[in-house]
Amino acid sequence: MDTAPSRKALTHERILDTAARAIRRAGFQGVGVADIMKEAGLTHGGFYAHFASRDALLAEALQHAGRQSAERIAKGNATRQARGASPFRALIEGYLSERHLAGAENGCAVAALASEMPRQSADVRDAAAQRVRALVALVGRSLPEGAAHEAATAIASQMVGALQLARALGDNAEGKALLADNRAALLARYDTASAN
What we know:
Elements: H1 7-26, H2 33-39, H3 54-82, H4 87-95, H5 98-102, H6 109-113, H7 122-142, H8 149-169, H9 173-190, H10 192-195
């Protein structure tokens, strides 16, 4: 039995892909329904066949962006681990990479949007909180067994903050150096696999 997605499902996915990129690129306030629909190659009138409101789109786009980021991180981590990196090193080297510095549009939604999250509707804030929890859980899974939950929250906070500060400095030598300093500090403190 063929279970190919319906045309409506494919269109919905295209809108989410477009909105997920747009919120990471321009922030929540920089995203208009008409612009998203136009960028997706659709008419504004078709929006309400997919979403009840702009906030519903933003919440779902944030979740979609998180899933996309998680898939990219998992793929990169698998590649780095296949080359001998510990799970923690793989995560840190990928997240605090020059590629991630330059790629906000396709990168971590938490780093791209954290400062805006508290000022959004309850639905968008709930979606944002889920993204933060997912990032902390990802960090926790990468740590050696027995590491404290507090370490995962502190590391996730440092990762996001370092990426935000590096982006504020720019995709230049200064921004790249800030990422390199944070990578080195985190790996020296928490990457016990390479210390053995």
